[in-house]
Fold each of these.
Amino acid sequence: MNDILSEATLRAALGDCKHLKIVFYPVCGSTNLEAKKLFADGFCKPTLIVAKEQTAGRGRQGRAFYSPAESGVYFTLLHPAQGSLGSLVPLTAAAAVAVMRAIRDCTGRQTQIKWVNDLTIGGRKVCGILSEGLTGEQNALAIGVGINLRPAKFPPELAGIAGSVGDTDTPRSTLIAAAVRNLLSFLNAPTHREWLDDYRKTSCVIGHEILILQNRETRAAKALDVGDDGELIVQTGRGIETLRTGEITVRMADQPTNSE
């Protein structure tokens, strides 16, 4: 397999996305942090930041994201925001569908979406998404994606939690380009209908018992549906509630508990 990951292979895979600036690093701390640096320096144009390896990959709540060279895909799309920044839940949900479709179309593997920012296979996390809003003279979005594409040996603390797509054939540039095209399409779409149906269909949460981790409180609930803006609708002892923040753990007999 010819899997050279470079600015040249990314540009070739992206084809007609000539407006997109590409910044490539053999190694960096975090592609989201590099996007923030660009923004802080006054740069706010559509930019794809890609790294072969991250030494300080980040997930939600400040967690680390294991990002070894060769086996994974790590990138951030920096994009000007249209108007003021609101909830990032719809953006993260749209990004999950964009990556899910890219993995499916490029590798033939079907992933499921765990609200709000993870993709899983067999209950194990194979992709994490970190969306951040950047404010300044012009607001921007930084959409970070990390995919465990190749089989990898994970650290002991990730045993039973992390997994991989298991693909050994798809060039990383091809997968990144497919995901970025989907993301750009969703960012320019007039409504959420472009991604909402797929988000619901591939959810591994709807219909299952969950634990909600919110405001330092853990409570049981049942996930009922995903709302029109990507929010999670749940049944709790308090009645029907809508979650726009917080995290969940899916409680399923056929998959490991995962609160990452």
Amino acid sequence: MSLTGGNRNDVTQLLPSLDKVPAVAGLVGRPTPDMLFADRGYDHDKYRRLLWQRGIRPVIAERGGQHGTGLGTFRWVVERTISWLHGFRRLRIRWERRDDIHEAFLGLATCLITHRHVQHLC
């Protein structure tokens, strides 16, 4: 992921975020996701076309359409994870001026969240 200012539109970071998906160990070539789920904010023909060119099927809610399209079950996972990250006060509001320090705190929070879930499995 790339770290941007809070006043940037999310859709502008769609393709750079896809470019930063790491390769999966043991697989030949660069893996790409089969489909991409997104909310109404990503409903633009330009981005749908660019996703199709990359071989990714866009599953994007349409603007003006009725709510309850079924994307909520997938979006809930993302919203829940953001909520967990906001449980760490240093990440709720970005106080650090340096990107590397903020990303280090983000990595620490991710490790702690993962550790807590692994403890529940054992």
Amino acid sequence: MIPKERIQQFLDPYDSSQTECDGMTRICHTLLTNHGIEHHPMIGVLFLHNQGIEPHFWIDLPSGERIDYRANTNSQ
């Protein structure tokens, strides 16, 4: 398994892109695929301040860690 610091190293530069969660998830999916890292793109609802934001996109890793730059809950 690749350390989370290594994953962050090639994903973080794209965090400043002008994309919403769907676009950022597509970027992350492409990069993770190109690096041969197993992952699962996800779609669902994000709850912030008792408000549901739908649809919301993110990536889950088999380790249980989550990549979600647009919710600012990045826990690679």
Amino acid sequence: MKISIIYATTEGHTRTISEFLSNEAQKLNHIVDLFDATLNPPPPEGYDVVIIAASIHAGKYQASVEHYVRDHHIALNQMKTIFIPVSLTAAANESELWNELKKQTEDFLIMTGWKPVLIEHTAGALLYTKYDFLKRFLMRVISNRSGGDSDASRDYIYTDWDQLKKVVEKMENLHAEK
């Protein structure tokens, strides 16, 4: 199977997630092309499956992913596609936050016209060591309020790597459905 993985990242964690997915798919002998959405990735035609991963910040996904999906939504809607929204909310166990996250994702999909076959919300990371002073301060305050990790001298990875391995299995099942 030939797979395109397109990602947008702010601090680099969504790239790490995308590289993980690529490595897992390659272990199963799939051909994988990995593209940063800011570097004008190729159109989806010619791929069996397209995975798009983007992180959400302040209620919005990266503009580069939005542009790519808008430009290619017709082709994407005619093939097997997976959307992997990456967020800290996905690590939370609060229904109100999850409802807001699902609404933001739904708004993104409506705005772009994309209808992925699978949406797999994935927990991201608090990367305090990569934030500038203001963002580190704000993220620490937000995390502290919600009872989360607030030691800004280190990073916290909340990603469930086993969940992502299952995404590759789901991708294979989608491809087998034809």
